[in-house]
Design brief:
The complex is a heterodimer of chains A (about 100) and B (about 180). Chain A has about 100 residues and is an all-beta fold. Chain A has strands at about 10, 25-30, 35, 40, 45-50, 60, 65, 75-80, 85-90, 95-100. In chain A, strand 9 and strand 10 (about 95-100) form a beta hairpin. Classes of the chains: A mainly beta (about 100), B mainly alpha (about 180).
Chain lengths: ~100, ~180
């Protein structure tokens, strides 16, 4: 599946702050939950996953993976194709979320 | 099944309830902030050592995955605790409650180290579930309500969320391994 979909890990590990834009959305990881757990974005949007917990997490789905996000770290993922993309934390598999790309 | 850390914690809790006249120092609800920090750090380190024992003795993928997670998560929590103490220029204080935890842990390690295979896996899983259940009760009912420093209270709240996730994971591990 990795070869079928082209996702681009857009941003570096360091925390960052940007002005809110329509094509950018942030999912906070806090208290072992993705918040919001389900989001809808447009094709080409970048979703930034930001870990506020003490422990490392990931946001890992079909064709994308933030890699390990330690406390305070963020990483952006740009979704370049439409579709539904469920994901989870590979360390804590009960943590689940979904990105709908329209 | 080897005596678990639950027994040690239960002993401490029993003493804390006032069943023994000399138990005041072991009452987790009566620890000061620096003693709470010490006890929480010790509790994390105990589970890290539990995990290293599991990685040394178990071939079960679920047990090994859980153990690796315990090392990663508890190290992260303890690192955050050390960073806060450094910021506050404070030193954690050893105390009777921490000593009780450690004594129980040493007893458990000695017994679990003699086990192998499925017997070890079942014992480790059961111990992890009991340990997290009890630690979560102590942190939630005694440490967080009584700690005075706001930053330490916040840290303990985040740590409790972590340990509660571990408790659920441990319950699943127990169910997966079976009897």
């Amino acid at each position: 599946m990795w070869s079928r979909r082209s996702f681009f890990i857009a941003c570096a590990m360091a925390p960052f702050v940007r002005p809110a834009r329509a094509d950018e959305t942030t999912v906070e990881i806090h208290q072992f939950k993705f918040a919001p757990a389900e989001i809808e974005v447009t094709v080409g949007a970048t979703v930034t996953f930001s870990n506020l917990d003490l422990v490392p997490h990931t946001a890992t789905g079909d064709g994308f993976d933030t890699g390990t996000l330690k406390k305070g770290e963020s990483r952006g993922v740009t979704f370049s194709e439409a579709g539904d993309f469920p994901y989870l934390c590979t360390f804590h598999r009960h943590m689940k979320g979904r990105v709908r790309v329209r | 099944m080897p005596r678990t850390l639950l027994a040690s914690l239960a002993l401490a809790a029993t003493l804390a309830a006032g069943c023994a006249g000399s138990a005041a120092a072991q009452d987790p609800a009566k620890l000061n902030d620096l003693e709470i920090a010490h006890a929480a750090y010790v509790a994390g380190n105990i589970d890290i050592r539990n995990a290293h024992l599991a990685l040394a003795l178990s071939d079960d993928p679920k047990v090994r995955e859980f153990a690796e997670l315990m090392i990663s998560d508890h190290e992260a929590v303890n690192d955050a605790a050390l960073a806060l103490l450094k910021k506050l220029k404070a030193e954690p204080q050893d105390n009777a409650f921490s000593q009780t935890l450690l004594k129980g842990a040493h007893d458990t390690w000695a017994k679990m180290a003699k086990l192998s295979g499925k017997e070890f896996d079942k014992s480790y899983a059961a111990n992890e579930l009991a340990y997290h259940q009890t630690v979560n009760k102590v942190v939630g009912d005694a440490f967080i309500p009584n700690v005075e420093n706001g930053e330490l209270k916040t840290l303990l709240g985040s740590a409790l969320a972590t340990f509660q996730a571990h408790e659920k994971h441990a319950a699943q591990m127990v169910a997966d391994i079976g009897s």
